[in-house]
Every structure is written in structure tokens, then in C-alpha cells.
Amino acid sequence: MRYKIIFITFICLCSGTAYPQQVPIYSQYIMNGFLINPSLAGRDGYTTINLTVREQWLGIRESPGTYAASFQTTIIQNNFMSSTVRRRVSRPSKSSRVGLGGYLFNDNNGIIRRTGFQADYAYHIPTGRNLNGEQSDFALGLAMIAYQCALNTEKLNYSYEDDPYLTTYDKSVFLTDFNFGVSYTSKKFNVGFSMTNILRGNLVFGKNADNKTGELGHYFITAGANYPLNREWSIKPSIFLKSSDMLLKSIQMDLTTRLSYRDAYWAGLSYRTGDAIIILLGLKYDRFYFGYAYDFTLTDMRNKSIGSMELTIAGKFGESARRYRWLDSY
Q1: What is the DSSP letter of 250?
Q2: Residue 11 carries which DSSP code?
Q3: Is 321 exposed, middle or buried (0-12, 13-18, 19+ CB in 10 A)?
Q4: What does the alpha-carbon distance between residue 218 and residue 112 come to, in Å, rounded to a whole number?
Q5: Chain Cα centroid distance, residue 61
Q6: Contact 9, 151 (CB under 8 A)
Q7: How far is CA 13 from its chain centroid?
């Protein structure tokens, strides 16, 4: 019976029945927006490299861990042009509209490993000025994702050679699917919607074609604002709403407020419903950004864990080819 429970748990975790385990959780979703919504690829016009390490429930053996590396850039149609007639003027012609990106990830949860990659395409449409007279940007994005979901039986503490459930079925499956995203950004406000697993791919274990378990689709809504207090200080509230095909049974929300100084240093506090309180710290040095998040667990897990840690390092290279230089992911 114990072996049956383990096998059933493996299927459930890979298929998304347990929502928090199908997709990685990111506390710094502001710095990781491209990983959540493919329409954000190339939004700021730079070539950006982003590395993220997340260790969840520190102090517990085989606790979840996520490692991600992403790359995004903009396909330049017409770059900034300089005119030497009468005076030197640097001005843009047409803004580049195509953003491309790539994303490698390795998500571990005990004996379960999810490893894969994602390729993103985004198209940005300048929408002129909104009702407040601010320049704005609308974008659509589509991503192809491919990954392997595998069970590492070497970490089991007992022999399973005689168990028909663990010896009959494959211990890894490979899936491909698509994610979609849309976003709207202005100088003081941004909002986005994205969804994963559009095709609701099936997990097939063993050679029995009738033995299929469909994945769940996940839905993300993000929104944020930028309120300048003066020329140096600003406050940036944001919200991250997560759900799945299970709808009300799987809704989770992150409420975040950050205080920023010259857009080079920031500190914030976030609350994840039913899970944790999160402290956020970050700084910018030259072209590099460093972000750190520490989750103080509010569930019973706090009796066995000292919390969760997430570190993000990003670098932006090249000159922005976008018309609106105020666009900044962070």
C-alpha cells in the first residue's frame, strides 16, 4: 500500500493536481516577470540575462529547489539615429517591436525533478498616450515549453524491485506545450495576464495508451503601479494572482509593496495568502541588478523549516532600442 501511495503521488505532482508543485513559485515575480508572462520578452529593449536560485523550506531534507536562467532581447528594426545637420540630435525612428527570449529551468521536489526549456516570442505595439497623457505599450506573447518530469528512485530508502507499480511504469515522461501572455505598460501602471499549458498535454506512463493523466492549465494576473514621492523616492505596490483549472480551490495571491530610492535601491514586504510573509531587498550597480527575498513561513511547516530563500542576479547590456526609455522591468 505504501508503494501505491508513492506512485499515485508522483502522478499527481507531475500532472498538476497539487497546484504549488506543478509550476515554480517565485517571490521576486517583479524581477522574474519574463518567466511568468512571455509578452514581457524584450519589453525594455535591452539584452538581459537573468539567473535565479530558490531554495524552499530550508532545513528540510530534499526540500523543493528551483534554478532558472533566462535570456531576452529585442530585434531592432530601426535603431536610434543621429543627425549632424545644424546640431547633433539623437532620436528614434520606428521602435523595435519584436522581443525574443529563452528560459532554462530545473525544478526539484524531493525525488521528483522537472527539467526543461522555454522559447518566447513577443510583439509590442506602442499605443501612444493614455488618458493621463503617458506613453504606453501593449504586447502579446507566445511561448513553447518542453520539459521532462522524472522520478529519481535512487533516493528511495527502501527496495522497490518487487513492486509492480514502480517497475511496470516509466519513471520519466517528456512533454511539450504552449504558454500565452498579454500585457499593458505605462510609466505609472502595468497589468498582465498569462496562461500555461494551453494544449493540456497528457502524461503517459508505461506502454498503455489508455493510461493518461491530463495537466492543469494555470492562470496568472499581475498588476503594479509606480507612485513618485519626490525626485528620489517612490513607492511601488503590486499584486500577483495565481490560479488553475481548479479555480477557487487553487487561488493564491501575493500582495507586495516596495520602497525605491533613485530606482537603484529598494526594500519591500510581501504577503502570500495562506503561506508566507516575504522580505525583499535589492540594488542596482552599473548594469547589474541584485535581488534577495526571504520567506517567513506561516504554515505548520515553520516548525521544521527556517524559511525559504531566493536570489536573483540580472544584467542588462546594450543601448535600449525602444522608443520609450522609461520601460524598466524592475
Answers
A1: G
A2: H
A3: buried
A4: 20
A5: 25
A6: no
A7: 19
pTM to 2 decimal places: 0.81
Q: Is the Cβ–Cβ distance between 27 and 308 less than 8 Å?
A: yes
Mean pLDDT value across residues 312-325: 75
Closest residue by Cα to residue 278 from 93, 30, 52: 30
Give residue 110's pLDDT. 78
Residue whose C-alpha is closest to residue 253's, from 241, 270, 245, 238? 241
Residue owning grid cell 527502501? 158
Any idea what the Cα angle at residue 71 is, between residues 126 and 114, rounded to 5°? 120
State residue 33 phi and psi, 5-degree precision. -55, -35
* Beta-carbon-side half-sphere exposure of residue 225 (alpha carbons within 13 Å): 6
Q: How far is CA 235 from CA 231, 253, 263, 285, 330, in A?
A: 12, 20, 10, 20, 13
Alpha helices, DSSP H, located in the chain: 2-15, 19-22, 33-36, 164-168
Taking residue 267's Cβ as centre, other Cβ atoms within 10 Å add up to: 14
- Grid coordinates representing 241 are 494572482
For residue 114, what is the DSSP state?
Answer: E
**212-236 CB burial, b ≥16 within 10 A, e <16:** eeebbbbbbebebebeeeeeeebeb
- At 240 the three-state DSSP class reads strand
Angle 192-68-311 (CA atoms, 0-180°, nearest 5)? 90
Identify the weakest region by mean pLDDT among 80-89, 107-116, 153-162, 284-293: 80-89
SS3 content of the chain, % helix, strand, coil (to 5): 10, 50, 35
Encoded amino acid at 240, one letter = F
Cell numbers given for 304:
521544521
Q: Running DSSP on this structure, what letter comes out for residue 263?
A: T
β-sheet bridge partners, residue 265? 261, 283
Separation of first and last alpha carbons in the chain = 49
